[in-house]
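Reposting from the mailing list since nobody answered there.

I have sequence plus structure tokens for a pair of proteins and want to know whether others read the tokens the same way I do. The first protein:
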Amino acid sequence: MTLKRKIMSGLAVIAFLAVAAAGSLFWFNWWLRFGSTRIYPVCKSSYGYMELTTPLTTEANAMFYGNMLPFNEGYVWIEEGNVIAKNWYWLFGEAELVQRTNYFLEELAKSQSLDPDEYVYCRHLALIGTPAHSSDYVAESYPSNFTRDTLEPLSFGVSSERAGHFTAVGRFYQWLGQVTGQQ
């Protein structure tokens, strides 16, 4: 293979990788801004933060809805008995999700005449908020701090968009959402 052919092949590979990277970044930002996912209570366990996926009692579900919906300006809603949120809120809203779960757990403990200060972990939520009332529960790992910190710069400020602070990329996706009817 001649030097010219090697250079042309290398440039073709670089061009392909650049297009693939740009497409992946475009898709990731589209997924963040316009996709949605089911929200579960995010609670603390010995493994870090977990999403408690075990079904809750009717009373606990009602309290969870009540703690998730206020002040969420349309990016969290109830759909078919589930709490649904925009993907950016699920991925980058850990502090708020944990705080809302803590309020929910405190309210749930008070409703059952229990000391709310003693009920702070996932196993406590499973004990008082699930039909089985057992410390055995099903949970999924919530994305780690490393994952969120790595993905945050690639989102081009999606977390601050709810406060009205849009980057050029955010304004582009806002326009694109209006054009495609996604917002």
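The second protein, same order (residues first, tokens after):
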Amino acid sequence: MPECRECKDEVAKLVTVKVGGKAKKLCADCADRMREAGEIAEASEGVIQGMMGFKGRR
């Protein structure tokens, strides 16, 4: 059985998710958490850039 790299549990199927430019194989629950964390980070970065008046791209 494959093992999740995040929670170290044995699962039936792993999902590949890109985190910080690197692909990781995680269980479905950990993959959802990583996706949510990435979306929150992008949104907060956008808010900070808006407050600072940043007009360019990253």
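Reply #1 (J.P.):
I read it the same way you do. The radius of gyration is 15 Å.
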